[in-house]
Amino acid sequence: MKKMIVPLAVSTACILLTASGTEMPDSGLFEMKSGDYTVTLLPKRACSLSGFAYDGIQLFTSDTASAGSVVQPLRTPEKVLSVELEADGAKISRAVSPVSGKKLVFTKTSLLDGLRLKTVMTLTPSGLIYSVSYEIVSGEKPSYFYPVTMPWNTAFTDWIMNTPSGGTSGNLVSDGSWCLNADLSSYALYRRNGEVGVAAGVKTPIPTAVRKHAIWDHKTYHKYFLFHKLPEWKKGYRSPVYTMEFRAFRSNVPAWRKTASETIREMGLAPSESNVRMKNNVTIVEAGPVSGRRDWNNPRRGIEALDPDYVLPPFRPVEAKGDTASVWNREYRISPYGLIAEAGIAGGNFLAEPMTFRTVVNGRETVYRTGAPRLVESRKGRAVFAGRADSDLLSLEVRTTVEYDGMVRVDLAVEPKREVVVNRLEYAFSLPEKNALYMHFIGCPNVNGLSIMVPSESMSFKVPERDGIFFREPFKTLVWFGDNDKGFLWFSGSEKNFYPDEQADRPGALEAVKKDGKVTFTVSPVTKPLKTSRRLDYTFGFFATPVRPMGSRWRNWLFTTRRGMYGSEKSHGVCGSMPMVWPDEYRSTAAPLFSRESEAEMKRFTEELHKKGRPALGYFDPIRVHIGYLKYLDRQPKGQQLNDLFLARPAGEDAFLYRVPILQENMKAWQTIPELIYAYGASKGGREVRVSSDSGWADFACFLMECYAKLGFDGMGDIDNCFPIRDMNPLHGAGYVGFDGKRRCEWDWFARRDLMKRFAAVFLKERGRAILVAHASATWSIPFMSFCDANMTFEHSNSGYVASERYLSEYASHNRELREKLAKGDPAFLRYAFPPERWRAELTGRQFGIPCVIMSNLTKSPQLDKKSAEGLAAARELTGRIAAHDCIMWPIWCDTAPMITLQKIRDAFGTAEPDVEFHPYWSQKKVRAEGFAAGYYKRPGKALVIIVNFADRPVSGTVDFSALKPAGIRNAETGKSFRDGGVLSLAAGDYAIFETAEK
User: Tens digits of per-residue pLDDT, 101-118?
Assistant: First the structure.
């Protein structure tokens, strides 16, 4: 499972009750002035710091900004207990704004949730000293505590910071990213417009966590957060005094860094945890790592899977004739342009009409002369068609490949016969509106640190009923349309030869419109006039879904770790039918995954599971690999210390205490660019790097799969991060050069397809079967997930993925309600993040032919009230959704009792038996449940009925089972009888399950 790389939105609401010591005004702004500085407080907001000005320039976003100490989630508004104000040593009994002096000391004691805070602000002509200490008095440990926050003005454009390992600098661009992210001793900001800066210094040791000292480079503020590492939460604990100093300065642009450094030196910062190196004392056990064996790339494991005659089960060979290729449950007829004229699914054409291709050149629409596509290759694993079209100004060459899982790859070349102006280039497909009830898209975040799983990047929604354009984007990596059972998708891994290069200059390159009973999706690589004589190559693909038959007895699959390692798994005590041996049970410090010393233990685990009749499954991340362990624990080193320095002879100081040998040799060739370093295992100095399936890493990963298989593993129960990743590392051929001469990223669809094929082939060869389970929350990455038996999802239900306004999707219908629930820490925000239509589009798996495994994230969600997240009501609401949508489960990160009970009920009824029919609530007519959603499983002589209250309020209504001809109706959870036509009452989000026997 992943740790999120998404920032958390922070908000507080404070009220001022009573104050003693100094009587403060109860409204307006209160100002303290010393020298050129003005500090503003807001009495109505618990006398919190709201403004900080220097020489008439506001350093904050305004004088009513939100600064000071913040806990998250906030359960109780801040309450002021006392306030004292001194001016030049004299206590002030009744404060009148403004107060001036050479030394002003403002002391506030307050209650902030379970903390008794003491905040001291000392303002002098030199600057502001800000001190915080606290005592734990009650309550629950918050998810986050920021002793100091400073909402710096968005006019600041540059930053520098100083750490024990040196200094670094950067720019502020208001793009929502995070800067600094380090255990620093000082930092400074500078605004070129106004030529003013502010310096901040850490005066005392301050334990930090997560992002440590960080600035959120947001469009509304450049907000500084001090991420504090909280101690064990025990009543009576008293913290040391934590102190920072802030000074402003004037400087012209060329000299500002020098001036900032001089200002910081004048602060006289004392040595502390924040500016003294923290050595890593982890013990490295060199145990002859598996990765040290030198045969990992000779032979290349699983490479037979890429042979054109190789076909993985459960698929069957491609059958091709004329212009048509057939695979399991689907048939494609290829058009003269190499696109799809018909896409047959289960015997019916899913398209409304043949796909279209269109160009406008020199201001006139092109008329092409075409011929029938030619079948140029027919193998077991693929059929290849070639096509050509010609015109006066352009010629087209198309190669269309249909593979045995139903993937259609199109390689299209557009060649000008002389220099021309291409005004527009586009292709499109149309579906009858009944076939396009829902839309799902996968994003393309162009910054490291923004998750592809946030709704603004990847989302599913109901297609609007009204006509008009309902989707418009510069690029996405995948777009799917479908109904409740079938679908059709487009995907692309490259914006090569899209024009203009910049996404902001082509906002409508992808567009979906509903009109005249059809939904049309258009891809327009060229949207503005492009003067060119060069050949334009495009590669993209299509897929009709479902892609494969569901596995045998899939409804019987219950996922758990082998011994209940995480969260609430420890309490339910169940080892599921799909158990995973988690890496924490065997991973050593000496190898990326496991070492020779752990092999005997791993083999024992698999043998024990096999004796119990269960498969043995592992965990694997195909895009992340362990680099080694840092020498110091204080902060992440610069990028070049992670990759370049170990190659230099003689080298500067290597940042690592230990490097995994295979990575030391190959990291530069294997990693993705831009570089992405993960701080997994950070407590021991561990670092991991993102690697590419397009590189030699693929061979090593397949070798590791063979190692697992030889130890008895039957596959992988969690192949993490199953979404496309961006890369432009030229050392393995990734990326392209745009029209503007810049190297740009591509996405790894086809390389990951090959990797997944090879994984399956390795296990099939060694174990006789291959069980692969993707872990892909928010992203149905069908182009390579088609080779997987299930998709483990719903990690994107973590509140962190919707904690910021910028993460929300403009295509979602319930953002306001979501935000309102989340602001209260209410798990019911999930009703609006995942309304029934999103469940039907994204979380049943039936349209894709791949079972959907739901894993809760309730107790891992930092914005939620802890008791509510751990409570039975939230767990039942999620379990009801799982039951209603025919999903399977990994019971974890919540009260799992309802999920375990649901699985027992399903198993007792026999939902996995071949004679079962599932009738979902959106289509069945036999069970009528007033005000509820009702669906059922049917077996000869009996039925299992699931009734769910999707409403945001309690509902009571009659339930009519008569069409099922019940001889008796029993509540499957309580065992109590229920009368046909009786009244059922359910709380908001709750459910009931009834078993009926036929007369």
Answer: 999 999 999 999 889 999
